[in-house]
């Protein structure tokens, strides 16, 4: 756990060891306390170095222990940091890999910090719904000032070693032998006064405008993390560092920690943290799994189509140092696409340089642009990202079958077309899979990996490995129209449009859902994505436009309610931001500043008159319930149909692809928080009021769970029949 050995008679080296990330479990804290006690008592020891085993200093408190009752958690890290700091022998932290959360707080208790150049430090507690509760909110502001500390503590950002040096968090950065360097430093400072190195004793350097700074930070976090309490508590704790002596500040830190812990947020965020890691551990009903099926190596890749998605996918591959061949349909598109890719790559290089990478250019994989399919003959994997058109995609996959080597995997970035239909035209349907990236593809963390009925487990394993190589979270789902994410999203957006027909304003709906915590309301989102995309898709399948049978009622398709509102906006040239008007108006075409549009109000009045729709007052509560519960209901249907194998898959998709607020855990976790019987009763009521909105009809699986006494979320899976799985 924590071992102690002597070096050159005078420096004791204590090594933290708790694989894989040396998290501070109660046992490790206890062992560290013991090792420190021995070193302090040993008269032969004049200085101490604390380091981490296997090149990782420490990733903070052991999150797996958070749900243990506090009295069973053993000695508190906070006391340990005070013990270290007050020790007369100098203590140096040798930081390799990471010093995060409690790991950084431990290092801040030390008198000196030496970091390896590739190490990262940070206080990510806010991302787990808590705050740094082992003096981080009190020591860090004393070390680096209020403004920088506020940024780190409220964003949870990880800071690379060179930036940490500039900020003053670490004293020295080395390229190698971090522990040796820490020992050298420890020896050098033996006998020197430690007063200025004891952070708890230092005054906080406050700028004259400190209150304005705190207020500004509060406004920022309220906007950025709507509905979440931990960022605000972090600011309150830093405010305490400004106004109170250290010991009082610590009391406030503890109080705020207890307050947060009594809310649902820490549990929700910690669930989201582990869910993101667990989705990588896929299993098929056949028994094949991430443990038993090896991925094939991917040394080279190709991307077809360099539009919005393709250019991001190329950039993502290049960032992962995978050489890419990028193919377009003609010279003009190739020129446009290649310029766009080069500009994205330049931006990546700039970002890396700002973070202190000296060889940023060399850290990207090479990209070759071409119009020639022959250049694809040796690549290990191809990702197709051309227009969303089945005939075109099939054409391309037929061609890939001929050109690519037999071992090459063929992936499609389709956002909802049938993977099996695409696979069926190839000579290797078992090697075809959906890799559904999210826009912008070089930034968004989510990759929906869509298994078709022919897809082999090796192909799944390789696609999931690709996600990891790209630094993304791959979630394995089954093949159905629009897969998981977009299938649920479509109903949510549709519900929002129905609410507008019934009397809401787009901005009221957006506000209600943004206050709930969603990154962007449905109308702002539609305007950003472009209303024409959905319009084209609906026209193609005959929901609107020339293929719509004559005599179809305007607000009905089959037995379902339909709103033609988005189609009419498109017919009027209102495509959203790109055309300067959509659900909102913008300062210009391509503008981003959404403003309520009086034109729309008049238009809506006329529309409601034509369709004989009576408006009514719609509460925020109804907006949230109808939009979110219909999405959640579809989540239960997706589970029932075996399209997703576990509720956490849906939650990870929503948290990482659709801006769902992590402090509520994700849609399915949120349903469990609200209570399944409540969700069911509300759905029943809304369905009764709106019998033509068929998707409000509660799913059988939801009803089954309620009838079984509402088991906790982790047991839902066991209530699903295994034969239903589409994985
Ligand atoms: N506690 C327990 N387990 C942890 C952990 C932690 N703090 N951090 C990571 N792990 C586990 C992961 O769950 C995963 O387990 P698995 O292999 O069984 O799935 C394993 O360690 C490896 O983690 P990753 O898959 O994330 O590996 P990476 O190499 O991609 O990333 C990391 C490593 C950068 C350390 C990343 O795991 C991370 O960011 N961890 C969270 C760190 C954090 O939030 N620390 C703050 C804790 S709260 C705290 O310290 C409170 C204090 O103020 C008192
Ligand atoms: P886009 O219209 O921006 O780009 C498509 C590109 O494909 C164009 O550059 C076009 O020249 C090229 N192309 C067309 N035919 C080609 C051919 N025969 N050979 C080579 N290149 C060809 O489209 P976008 O938005 O990038 O979408 C691509 C795919 O990704 C679609 O299937 C879409 O549904 C999917 N998708 C889109 C998302 C988005 O937010 N835009 C999100 C996730 C998936």
TrEMBL record:
Primary residence: other
Subcellular location: Peroxisome
Example GO BP: fatty acid beta-oxidation
Pfam family, one: 3HCDH
PROSITE patterns in UniProt: ENOYL_COA_HYDRATASE (PS00166)
Catalytic activity entry: (3S)-hydroxydecanoyl-CoA + NAD(+) = 3-oxodecanoyl-CoA + NADH + H(+); (2S,3S)-3-hydroxy-2-methylbutanoyl-CoA = (2E)-2-methylbut-2-enoyl-CoA + H2O; (3Z)-hexenoyl-CoA = (2E)-hexenoyl-CoA; (3S)-hydroxyhexadecanoyl-CoA = (2E)-hexadecenoyl-CoA + H2O
Domain of life: Eukaryota
Keywords: Acetylation, Fatty acid metabolism, Isomerase, Lipid metabolism, Lyase, Multifunctional enzyme, NAD, Oxidoreductase, Peroxisome
InterPro entries: 3-OHacyl-CoA_DH_NAD-bd (IPR006176), 3HC_DH_C (IPR006108), 6-PGluconate_DH-like_C_sf (IPR008927), ClpP/crotonase-like_dom_sf (IPR029045), Enoyl-CoA_hyd/isom_CS (IPR018376), Enoyl-CoA_hydra/iso (IPR001753), NAD(P)-bd_dom_sf (IPR036291)
Molecular function in Gene Ontology: (3S)-3-hydroxyacyl-CoA dehydrogenase (NAD+) activity; delta(3)-delta(2)-enoyl-CoA isomerase activity; enoyl-CoA hydratase activity; NAD+ binding
Pathway it works in: Lipid metabolism; fatty acid beta-oxidation
Listed EC numbers: 1.1.1.35, 4.2.1.17, 5.3.3.8
Domain 3-hydroxyacyl-CoA dehydrogenase NAD binding stretches: 301-479
Any Gene Ontology CC annotation: peroxisome
Ranges of residues in domain 3-hydroxyacyl-CoA dehydrogenase C-terminal: 483-586, 623-712
Self-association and partners: Monomer.
Entry's family note: In the C-terminal section; belongs to the 3-hydroxyacyl-CoA dehydrogenase family.
PANTHER family assigned to the protein according to its UniProt record, in alphabetical order: 3-HYDROXYACYL-COA DEHYROGENASE (PTHR23309), PEROXISOMAL BIFUNCTIONAL ENZYME (PTHR23309:SF49)
Protein name, entry field: Peroxisomal bifunctional enzyme
């Amino acid at each position: 756990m924590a071992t102690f050995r002597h070096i050159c008679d005078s420096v004791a080296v204590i090594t933290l060891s708790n694989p894989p990330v040396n998290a501070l479990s109660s046992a490790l804290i206890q062992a560290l306390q013991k090792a420190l006690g021995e070193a302090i008592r040993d008269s032969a020891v004049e200085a101490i170095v604390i380091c981490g085993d296997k090149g990782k200093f420490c990733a903070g408190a052991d999150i797996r222990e958070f749900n243990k009752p506090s009295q069973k958690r053993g000695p508190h890290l906070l006391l340990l940091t005070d013990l270290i700091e007050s020790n007369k022998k100098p203590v140096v932290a040798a930081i390799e890999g990471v010093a995060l959360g409690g790991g950084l707080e431990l290092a801040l208790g030390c008198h000196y910090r030496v970091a390896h150049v590739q190490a990262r430090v940070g206080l990510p507690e806010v991302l787990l719904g808590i705050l740094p509760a082992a003096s981080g909110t009190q020591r860090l502001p004393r070390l680096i000032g209020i403004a920088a500390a506020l940024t780190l503590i409220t964003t949870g950002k990880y800071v690379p070693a060179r930036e940490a040096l500039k900020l003053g968090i670490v004293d020295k950065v080395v390229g190698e032998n971090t522990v040796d360097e820490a020992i050298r430093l420890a020896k050098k400072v033996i006998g020197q006064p430690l007063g200025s190195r004891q952070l708890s004793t230092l005054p906080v350097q406050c700028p004259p405008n400190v209150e304005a700074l705190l207020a500004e930070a509060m406004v920022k976090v309220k906007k950025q993390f709507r509905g979440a309490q931990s960022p605000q508590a972090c600011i309150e704790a830093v405010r305490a560092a400004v106004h109170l002596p250290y010991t009082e500040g610590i009391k406030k830190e503890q109080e705020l920690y207890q307050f947060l812990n009594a809310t649902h947020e820490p549990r929700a965020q910690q669930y989201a943290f582990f869910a993101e890691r667990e989705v990588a551990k896929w299993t098929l009903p056949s028994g094949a799994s991430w443990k038993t099926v090896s991925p094939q190596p991917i040394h080279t890749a190709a991307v077809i189509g360099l539009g919005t998605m393709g250019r991001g996918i190329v950039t993502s591959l290049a960032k992962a140092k995978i050489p890419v061949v990028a193919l377009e349909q003609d010279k003009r598109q190739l020129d446009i696409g290649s310029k766009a890719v080069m500009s994205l790559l330049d931006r990546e290089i700039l970002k890396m340089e700002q973070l202190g990478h000296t060889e940023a250019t060399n850290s990207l994989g090479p990209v070759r642009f071409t119009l020639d399919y022959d250049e694809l003959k040796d690549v290990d994997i191809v990702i197709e990202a051309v227009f969303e058109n089945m005939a075109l995609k099939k054409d391309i996959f037929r061609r890939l079958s001929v050109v690519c080597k037999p071992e090459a995997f063929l992936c499609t970035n389709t956002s909802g077309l049938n993977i099996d239909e695409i696979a069926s035209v190839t000579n290797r349907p078992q090697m075809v899979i959906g890799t559904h990236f999210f826009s912008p593809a070089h930034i968004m963390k989510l990759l929906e990996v869509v298994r078709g009925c022919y897809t082999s487990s090796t192909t799944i394993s390789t696609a999931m490995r690709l996600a990891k190589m790209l630094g993304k979270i791959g979630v394995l789902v089954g093949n159905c129209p629009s897969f998981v994410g977009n299938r649920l999203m479509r109903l949510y957006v549709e519900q929002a449009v129905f609410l507008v027909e019934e009397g809401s304003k787009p901005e009221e709906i957006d506000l209600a859902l943004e206050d709930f915590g969603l990154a962007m309301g449905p109308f702002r989102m539609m305007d950003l994505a472009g209303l024409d995309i959905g319009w084209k898709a609906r026209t193609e399948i005959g929901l609107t436009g020339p293929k719509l049978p004559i005599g179809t009622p305007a607000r009905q398709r089959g037995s379902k309610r339909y709103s033609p509102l988005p189609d009419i906006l498109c017919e009027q040239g209102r495509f959203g931001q790109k055309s300067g008007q959509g659900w909102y108006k913008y300062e210009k075409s391509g503008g981003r500043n959404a403003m309520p549009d009086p034109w729309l109000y008049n238009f809506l009045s006329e529309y409601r008159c034509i369709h004989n729709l009576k408006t009514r007052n719609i509460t925020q509560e109804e907006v949230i319930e109808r939009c979110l519960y219909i999405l959640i209901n579809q989540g239960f249907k997706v589970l029932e149909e075996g399209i997703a194998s576990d509720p956490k898959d849906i939650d990870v998709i929503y948290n990482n692809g659709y801006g769902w607020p992590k402090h509520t855990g994700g849609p399915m976790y949120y349903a469990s928080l609200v209570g399944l019987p409540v969700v069911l009763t509300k759905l029943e009521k809304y369905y009764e009021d709106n019998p033509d909105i068929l998707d409000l009809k509660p799913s059988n699986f939801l009803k089954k769970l309620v009838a079984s006494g509402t088991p906790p979320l982790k047991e839902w899976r066991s209530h699903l029949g295994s034969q239903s799985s589409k994985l």
